[in-house]
Specification:
By secondary structure, the protein is mainly α. It has one domain. It has three helices and no strands. Bound molecules: zinc ion. Zinc ion (ZN) binds next to loops.
């Protein structure tokens, strides 16, 4: 039996949730088809827009206090806010998206989560 791999550690490190060794990405945000270390099949990986939602939510919480502080203390024109926070939000978002996507995939892997499908015969979710 394989050693236990923490989905949190493997996810945040962008490593395979099965073995904790192989990378889950083959490019910046594209999932590899399988783990190069253990051969785990990543073809059903589908985090959808969950990682983007959580990254936006986290960034809103992190960015708003300094934005409000700068506005209250300095009262700069709007273009100063755009120049200050626009690039910061884009860079932080890009930096956080990979580990969040990998983390959501690792949690889906750990809990055997699958996309909900409707059963045609009785209309109930299966
Ligand atoms: Zn692996």
């Amino acid at each position: 039996m394989a050693a236990y791999v923490s989905p949190i550690k493997a996810g945040l490190a962008c490593r395979c949730p099965a073995c904790g060794e192989g990378p889950v990405f083959k490019s910046f945000l594209e999932m590899a088809p399988r783990c190069p270390a253990c051969g785990a099949d990543f073809s059903k990986a589908d985090a959808a827009d969950g990682p983007a939602f959580f990254v936006m939510f986290l960034l809103a919480i992190l960015i708003m206090p300094p934005v409000l502080l700068v506005q209250i203390v300095f009262a700069p024109p709007v273009w100063v806010h755009v120049i200050l926070w626009g690039p910061l939000i884009v860079l932080l978002g890009a930096w956080l998206l990979r580990p969040f996507k990998s983390l959501m995939f690792a949690l889906q892997w750990k809990h055997n989560a699958e996309e909900v499908r409707w059963n045609d015969s009785d209309g109930s979710a299966s």
